[in-house]
Design a protein that fits this description.
The complex is a heterotrimer of chains A (334), B (452) and C (174). Chain A is of the alpha+beta class and 334 residues long. Chain A is built from 7 helices and 14 strands. In chain A, a hairpin with an 8-residue loop joins strand 11 and strand 12. Chain C has a 4-stranded mixed β-sheet, covered by helices on one side. Chain C folds into 2 domains: 62 residues, NADH-quinone oxidoreductase subunit E (Arc Repressor Mutant, subunit A), CATH 1.10.10.1590; 87 residues, 3-Layer(aba) Sandwich (Glutaredoxin), CATH 3.40.30.10. The chains are: A alpha+beta (334), B alpha/beta (452), C alpha+beta (174).
């Protein structure tokens, strides 16, 4: 007899270790049925539950107690039970709620993607593309904050922040002295150091990698290039502080930035130190391993040399095509 | 006169002192519990009494107690929730001000039942005067041997402390309260684990409202069965109702559950009718979070039956035509009150009090407030009403804690029952700035339901 | 961005530290962070508000990080991170109080004191602000004044005038 528990997500059954969350069970299945997650980060203890984008419907609690759960649950923080049945993309209720969460996450977001360094690798951008609606019903002034530097290498652009708390957990769990935190409350909450302080720690740069949006960006890469014009390459070096396993982002011969290696969910494989991130920007500093595989869903892979056949950059959007056709017909009528 | 179980002696001069309280039968429950009962016996009595949590959710207290995990070698905690911040609710303040020893006595019995050796009473920070009252009462009880080491020679030790909050409605949510008591921001925890398994300092914890704890005293004195005889159906015992708004005699009343709403509003024993000879327009019967009802629906259910002050009767008809008993914050509106303005006021409250941890509540409450502000000040659109209903729906049920629901319900219910008043604000913005919509047809008798 | 430039020299008196010690003794060993909220109340009662250096000192006393104190102070509404008038009149502005005239009372206080919400009168004596439900809806309208948090209930314009006069003359005598 196996100790594993059985869970069915959108009709697909998988056996997982007891204690696994619904989200991680879904990730073991993979594909479209994986709920999106903006705040959960498997490497950060206590993260998750806050953004509400990963809400799912538990239509059967477990073999023992088959009652459905009355409310939608955050899949990242709900443990699977044996015989549990979960609906994600097969539940209209879930999709409706998720659409609501996306709309709500965007009402105070500046939507400054054209000038945002995160564009192209931003999870909010992907999320809005997948689940958002074309226009907003929010007609009020959006919340803004001034940009501030926390340390000489990191810029905090609070206006873009979705308050996922990941950077706070990172500082708590990776460094010995957290300098920044969540101040204020409600929609006036902000990430801040309160009194101006530089964040100075060997691992502080990781807050950039865990940020799902463009709120924390690498100043050494600021406005250098759009990420989709750069070529990611895996490389390593013998680093006394961290594993030294990184991704180099090349433009021509030049290393424009160094990040940790991120998986398809945007989570780093191993956290890296600031020396690797900021100070080793020569190819000769590194042992090159080869091109970094980027999911073909990402815009970064659009002109990637790893792929032989060209990939469709834009999904055929029937509504858009229809709208274009109508627009065209109107134009020739006049 | 109706039976009083908590406030029977509240008018005796000096009842706030140990001496007078004791002379009038105080601390009998402690003696009975510690000397003659096991902790399981007490839990059993509370279960028998049918007591339901008086903080708002109405969850059976005895059942909550029986969920408490009892791992070896780990402390257990009882935390009393005196955060009382729900607009319209002020019964706990009243109880603690005038008869503090009732709460202390309840805390001792309940802590003994749960096996807690350190218990905390968490009060909202604004209640500094009540904190001083309770601290004095605790010192008196300790001097008399009811607190501290080896209480009444039984070998049972209990320390009791009062903890102030810092000004946050959200700390009335039990896990936010625990966070706050641990010296952190009042962000509710993601459940599970529930406090009964992992609460204060990661230890099994029970959080109960002030009134629930106080109700344990008569339950132990007279027995659970006797307590269950008071009230109606599954709404057993008495309930403290905080009556406010446009009433002749606002204040805190102890009622037997099952009293009719009409008697509560109009009889001289209770609120004495609507102030200044005006007419009743609407009532929020259980604190600001519960749905508002127009006068005709609060006095009678949609089936034409008398509406009673009980968990079941007030929620009769679901959210379509009913409301909830909640925390017993009974707010009455006279014919001159503007429902739009009041709804905006409530939504401002929830916007202000949202902790900001999860996105639907953080962003959605502010959005609703802004739309309602626009409606109140004559810049609204008719489409705003559907927008509000939709935003409320997007928040409700999708948040970490019930604050999201609490913010959504008042808005959704106000539009459900007072849609024409909202529409009038949009269509007659100038007039709406100068005068109120008035009573309209909100007090008219409901049309008889057709027999099917 | 919340930024604080005011500096204030803070050295807690032995009497205040003794009060802190008493608070800390209420919690299990190692859980002294629980004392944070009560200690911040004590600091505010002593200094009238809580400056950044004072928060740092509290962090040092409780052996926690300064950011943990900043996070808490800015979350709860009772803590002032800026100086206020000697008497801060906090008027309840939530629904039930508004049903019986709280908005009129606030307007009256604004006119009477001649300062807007959150500002300090030139003599440094008064500030006022609207606060959310104070759980005294049956005695509405109400206001409270720290650090004792004395309650003034069933307010009328006349009783507010009287209260302000009393506070003024009391502070002159002291």
């Amino acid at each position: 007899m196996s100790d594993k528990v059985k869970v069915t997500i959108d009709g697909i059954t998988v056996e997982v270790e007891p204690g696994t969350s619904i989200l991680n069970a879904a990730r073991q299945i993979g594909g479209d049925i994986v709920p999106p997650a903006m705040c959960y980060y498997s490497k950060l203890e206590g993260s998750g539950g806050k953004c509400r984008t990963c809400l799912v419907k538990v239509s059967k609690g477990s073999e023992k107690d088959p009652r459905p759960m009355p409310k939608l649950l955050a899949s990242c923080r709900t443990t699977v039970m044996d015989g549990m049945e979960v609906q994600n993309i097969t539940s209209p209720e879930v999709l409706e709620a998720r659409k609501g969460v996306v709309e709500i996450l965007l009402i105070n977001h500046p939507l400054d993607c054209p000038v945002c360094d995160q564009a192209g690798e931003c999870h909010l951008q992907d999320l809005s593309y997948e689940h958002g609606v074309g226009k907003t019903r929010y007609e009020f002034e959006r919340r803004t904050f001034d940009k501030i530097d926390i340390g000489d290498k990191i810029q905090l652009h609070m206006t873009r922040c979705i308050l996922c708390y990941r950077c706070v957990y990172t500082a708590d769990q990776l460094t010995n002295k957290r300098e920044h935190g969540i101040l204020g409350r409600g929609d006036a909450s902000e990430i801040s150091t309160y009194i101006e302080k530089a964040i100075d720690n060997d691992f502080s740069g990781n807050v950039i990698d865990v940020c799902p949006v463009g709120a924390l960006t690498d100043k050494t890469f600021r406005f250098k290039n759009r990420v989709w014009f750069t070529k990611p390459v895996d490389a390593h070096r013998d680093c006394p502080t961290c594993s030294g396993k990184v991704t180099l982002w090349f433009k021509g011969e030049e290393v424009l930035r160094v990040t940790a290696r991120k998986d398809q969910y945007g989570e780093v494989e191993e956290f890296i130190c600031n020396t690797c991130r900021y100070d080793k920007k020569k190819t000769s500093d590194w042992v090159i391993e080869g091109p970094r595989h980027i999911s073909n869903k990402s815009v970064i892979s659009s002109n990637h040399y790893e792929t032989l056949k060209p990939l469709p950059v834009i999904k055929p959007n029937l509504a858009l095509q229809a709208a274009n056709k109508e627009e065209f017909e109107r134009a020739i009528k006049n | 006169m109706a039976r009083k179980l908590l406030f029977e002696n509240i008018n005796i001069p000096g009842i706030d002192t140990f001496e007078v309280y004791r002379k009038n039968g105080g601390y009998r429950a402690v003696e009975k519990a510690i000397k003659t009962m096991s902790s399981d016996d007490i839990v059993e009595e509370v279960k028998k009494s049918g007591l339901r949590g008086r903080g708002g959710a109405g969850f059976p207290t005895g059942m909550k107690w029986s969920f408490l995990a009892k791992p070896e070698g780990k402390a257990r905690y009882l935390v009393c929730n005196g955060d009382e911040s729900e607009p319209g609710t002020f019964k706990d303040r009243y109880l603690m001000t005038y008869i503090p020893h009732l709460l202390i006595e309840g805390m001792i019995v309940s802590s003994y039942a749960l096996g807690a050796n350190t218990s905390y009473i968490y009060l909202r920070g604004e209640m500094m005067p009540q904190i001083r009252i309770l601290e004095k009462a605790i010192a008196e009880a300790r001097n008399a041997g009811f607190l501290g080491k080896n209480i009444l020679g039984s070998g049972y030790d209990l320390e009791l402390y009062v903890q102030p909050g810092g000004g946050a409605y959200i700390c009335g949510e039990e896990t936010a309260l625990i966070e706050s008591l641990e010296g952190k921001r009042g962000n509710p925890r993601i459940k599970p684990p529930f406090p009964a398994i992992s609460g204060l300092y990661g230890c099994p914890t029970v959080v109960n409202n002030v009134e629930s704890i106080a109700a344990v005293v008569p339950i132990i004195n007279d027995g659970g069965d006797e307590y269950a005889k008071v009230g109606i159906g599954r709404s057993t015992g008495t309930k403290l109702i905080s009556a406010s708004g446009n009433l002749v005699k606002p204040g805190v009343y102890e009622i037997e559950l099952g009293l009719s709403v009409e008697d509560f509003i109009y009889s001289d024993e209770y609120c004495g009718g609507i102030a200044n000879g005006k007419k009743l327009k609407a009532v929020v019967p259980g604190g600001s979070s519960v749905p508002i009802l127009p006068a005709n629906l609060i006095l009678k259910t949609v089936n034409g039956e008398k509406r009673l002050m009980s968990y079941e009767s007030l929620s009769d008809g679901g959210f379509a035509t009913g409301s909830m008993l909640g925390s017993g914050g009974f707010i009455a509106f006279d014919e001159d009150q503007c429902i739009v303005r009041n709804t905006w006021n409530y939504s401002r409250f929830y916007h202000h009090e949202s902790c900001g941890q999860c996105s639907p509540c953080r962003e959605g409450t502010g959005w609703m407030e802004k739309v309602l502000h626009r409606l109140e000040y004559g810049h609204g659109k008719l489409s705003d009403l559907d927008l509000l209903v939709d935003v409320a729906k997007k928040i409700e049920g999708n948040t970490i804690c019930p604050l999201g629901d609490a913010a959504a319900w008042p808005v959704a219910s106000a539009i459900r029952h007072f849609r024409d008043e909202f529409e009038w604000h949009v269509t007659n913005p100038k007039e709406a700035m100068e005068r109120n919509y008035g009573l309209a047809k909100y007090a008219d008798p409901l049309p008889k339901l057709e027999e099917v | 961005m919340l930024s604080v430039t005011e500096t204030q020299f803070v050295e807690f008196s032995p009497a205040l530290i003794a009060k802190f010690d008493d608070v800390v003794s209420r919690y299990p060993i190692g859980k002294q962070k629980s004392a944070l909220l009560p200690i911040l109340h004590l600091v505010q009662a002593e200094y009238g508000w809580i400056s950044a250096p004072a928060m740092d000192k509290v962090a040092q006393y409780l052996e926690i990080l300064p950011i943990e104190v900043y996070e808490v102070t800015t979350f709860y509404t009772m803590y002032f991170t800026r100086p206020t008038g000697k008497f801060m009149l906090e008027v309840c502005r939530t629904g039930p109080c508004c049903l019986v005239g709280a908005e009129k009372i606030m307007k009256h206080i604004e006119n009477k004191l001649g300062v807007r919400e959150g500002e300090i009168t030139p003599d440094g004596l008064f500030s006022w602000r609207g606060v959310e439900c104070l759980a005294a809806c049956g005695m509405a309208p109400v206001l409270q004044i720290g650090p004792e948090y004395t309650f003034y209930e069933n307010l009328t314009e006349e009783s507010v005038d009287q209260l302000i006069e009393n506070l003024k003359s009391n502070s002159l005598q002291n």
